[in-house]
Design goal:
Oligomer: single chain
Number of helices: 10
Distance between the termini: 34 Å
Number of domains: 2
Radius of gyration: 22 Å
Number of strands: 2
Order of helices and strands: HHHHHEEHHHHH
Bound molecules: zinc ion
Strand content: under 5%
Shape: elongated
Length: 294
C-alpha cells in the first residue's frame, strides 16, 4: 500500500475512477499504466487485480472495458464514403454499400461500436469477451423478442425509419458477434484461457447471429414493401423512381447469399450468413442453443 510504489499508485487512481463511476477514465488510466509499468505487463492480471482492487472493482473494470466505445465511430456507424451519406447516387441508383441508409460499418470495430479487443490488455481479453458477449446476447434476445415494426402494416416515413433503426441495431450486434467469434478463435488457438469457454462463446454467438440474420432478411423484406407503398403514393417522379429502386434493392438484398459488398457482410460469420440465404418465416424461432456465455 506504500504510495511510493508506482503500481499501487496507479491502482489507487483506477479504483477511485471506478468508485466514482468514471469508467472511461479508469480504462484510459489502466491502459496507460500498462504501457509504462513493465511489472504489470508480466504478471497474470486477474489475480493481481482481484487482490489490489478487490473482486467488485475488478468486475467494474471488466464492464468498463466491455462497454468502452470505439474511438473512431458513433455506435459502429460512419458516414458512407461511396454516396457521401445520401444513400443513393446522383444517377438515382441506391448505394448497396450502406443499404441506402447513408451510414456504413466502422472498419475499426466491425460496426460493434465497442473498442477493438486489441485495445484490451491480453490478460483481460477472455473476461471482457465473456462480459461483452453477455451484453450482446441479452440485447439480441430483446431485439428478437420485440414485435416487428408496423404490426404488419408497411408504408410511411416513420415505419421506414423504425425498420432502418432495427436493421442497424441488428447489424451492430452482428458486428459484436463477429468480433467475439474472431477473438474466441484466436485466443483458443493461442491456448490463452479455457478452450471450453471459447467454444461456448462461439456457439452462443453464432446461434444468436444466425437468428439475427433471419431477422435482418425479414427487415429488408419489410423495407422493400415500405418503399413499394411509398412509390405508389409518391407524386414527384424523381422520388417515385427512388422508391422503386429501393423496392428492388431491398428485395434482392433480402435474398443475397452473403451480403458481400454491403455493410451487412461480416467476415467471421460469413459462412453462417451464406447458409441462411433463404428467408425463414418470422415465426420460426431458430435453434435454441445454449445462449448463456458462461
Ligand atoms: Zn452509401
Ligand atoms: Zn468503430
Amino acid at each position: 500500500m506504500a504510495s511510493e510504489d508506482p503500481t499501487a499508485k496507479i491502482m489507487q487512481s483506477v479504483a477511485r475512477a471506478l468508485s466514482a463511476g468514471r469508467s472511461k477514465e479508469a480504462v484510459h488510466q489502466f491502459v496507460q499504466a500498462l504501457s509504462h509499468d513493465t511489472t504489470l505487463k508480466r504478471v497474470d492480471l486477474p489475480p493481481l487485480l482481484a487482490q489490489t482492487l478487490g473482486k467488485s472493482k475488478l468486475d467494474a473494470l471488466i464492464q468498463a472495458f466491455a462497454k468502452h466505445p470505439c474511438m473512431v465511430c458513433r455506435r459502429g456507424l460512419l458516414i458512407c464514403d461511396d454516396c457521401e451519406g445520401r444513400g443513393y447516387f446522383r444517377d438515382g441508383r441506391i448505394c448497396d454499400a450502406c443499404l441506402g441508409l447513408g451510414t456504413t460499418n466502422c472498419d475499426f470495430c466491425a460496426g460493434s461500436g465497442w473498442i477493438t479487443y486489441k485495445y484490451v490488455p491480453a490478460g483481460l481479453q477472455e473476461m471482457v469477451l465473456l462480459a461483452r458477449s453477455k451484453l450482446a446476447l441479452a440485447e439480441a434476445r430483446a431485439l428478437l423478442a420485440a414485435p416487428l415494426p408496423g404490426g404488419g402494416k408497411t408504408g410511411g416515413e416513420a415505419n421506414r425509419k423504425t425498420l432502418a433503426q432495427r436493421l442497424l441495431q441488428a447489424n451492430r450486434l452482428m458486428g459484436a458477434f463477429d468480433n467475439a467469434v474472431g477473438i474466441a478463435r484466436s485466443l483458443a488457438e493461442a491456448g490463452a484461457g479455457s478452450a471450453t469457454t471459447f467454444e461456448n462463446v462461439e456457439s452462443a454467438c453464432s446461434s444468436a447471429a444466425s437468428r439475427l440474420v433471419r431477422r435482418i432478411r425479414k427487415l429488408l423484406q419489410l423495407l422493400s414493401e415500405n418503399a413499394k407503398v411509398q412509390a405508389a403514393q409518391e407524386k414527384s417522379p424523381r422520388q417515385r423512381r427512388l422508391n422503386e429502386r429501393r423496392t428492388q434493392t431491398y428485395a434482392s438484398l433480402a435474398k443475397s447469399t452473403d451480403f458481400k459488398g454491403t455493410s451487412l457482410f461480416h467476415v467471421y460469420l460469413r459462412e453462417l450468413q451464406s447458409s441462411e440465404a433463404s428467408p425463414e418465416p418470422s415465426t420460426q424461432p431458430g435453434p435454441r442453443g445454449s445462449e448463456s456465455s458462461n
